[in-house]
Amino acid sequence: MRICVFLSAADLDDRYTRPAREFAKLLGKGGHTLVWGGSDVGLMKVVADGVQEAGGRLVGVSVDFLAGKARPGVDEMVITKDLAERKRLLLEKADAVVIMVGGTGTLDEATEILELKKHGHTEKPVVLLNTAGFYDGLKEQFRRMETEGFLPLPLTDLVFFAEEPVGALAYLEESLGTR
Q1: How far apart are CA 102 and CA 154, in angstroms?
Q2: Over 80: is that where the pLDDT of 179 sits?
Q3: How many Å apart are CA 65 and CA 150, to the nearest integer?
């Protein structure tokens, strides 16, 4: 599988890096490809290191103004002119999406894929990895959107919430029939 991971490029503490590293190792050991923002810093580096060390492939999609932080030695690296093109290529190159902890950029990427799914423009499975309860508030907001009629599809058709890395990968493998 080619799995797009949206996540932070910030340096974070162990409660976030440990599960990210665990997911990366599972991905690499499974022979999967990481499709990610291409940065060699912060949590993005942690995940890329884990995938590469475990034998997985790396496909980066960076953006012109962040090209100086792009990871060397990957299987494929694309530098785009803007963030819109970057998001489009990240999704194009992936079979599935995992949303890890992150800031506004990660949230922007997450809402993009969910909006595409909502309108039937993609069938790709989407997992939100709720590390250390990071997305509890967002999960509650999504439930409210569903309950109050803001979502035309059941929430479970849009996104799967996983509490642990092993559950995230198992869901993707089952969804795509690779298990």
Answers
A1: 25
A2: no
A3: 36
- 118: closest CA among 141, 94, 142? 142
Q: Which tokens sit at 151?
A: 């979502």
Phi/psi for 62 (5° steps) reads: -100, 180
Q: What are the tens digits of pLDDT across the range 131-150?
A: 999 999 999 999 999 999 99
Distance, in Å, from the CA atom of 94 to the CA atom of 90, rounded to the nearest integer, reads 7
**Packing angle of the helix pair 14-29, 42-53 (nearest 10 deg):** 30
Interacting residues of 60 by C-beta distance below 8 A, sequence separation 6+: 35, 36, 37, 38, 39, 48, 70, 71, 74, 76, 77, 78
80-122 pLDDT, tens digit each: 999 999 999 999 999 999 999 999 999 999 999 999 999 999 9
